[in-house]
Amino acid sequence: MHEWQERLRDGERLLVRPIRPDDRDELAAGIHRLSPESRYRRFFTPTSELSSSQLTYLTDVDHRDHEALVAIEPDTGHGLGVARFVRSVEDKERAEVAVAVADSWQGRGVATALLNRLTERAREEGIRRFSAEILADNRPMLELIDDLGEVSVKHRDHGSVEVEVELPDEGIGAALRETLRAAARGLLRVRT
Fold it and tell me: What is the CATH number of domain 4-189?
């Protein structure tokens, strides 16, 4: 498995690597490092801790159809964020995407570093599109999606809109970057 050293906007360094089953305690602790608002935006319920089965699902991944990368602070070994994709059963070239970053590290480039590497991993596994759901009453996000152009609305159902973003041949591209940033801010609800 790969490990990457990344430099953030402020010059700080972090390690990005695939998640492992032995990360479950750190992931459980990381939930407590998120504010209640960040936890709600990520899980769409007032979540204060993860169950044993959720921790297993989130850390014991196959790194093909379900990939998760973690950002680690080198000095402390604490997790700073997680980005993941889960391949669609119906369409093997599409995967749902999610990202979460500790509040104290938001806005510093952690999500960008994670998403750059996650997008590379997705391409290596034959994934060509990421998808996510937007709440239908989220007008600013729907307007952003319309402005990006490269993002397509797949369907509207039960108060939400599913969007799909093509992966560029390299990098993450503007449409994907902004869609994933919205997911990191909790503006997108991802079904995973």
Answer: 3.40.630.30
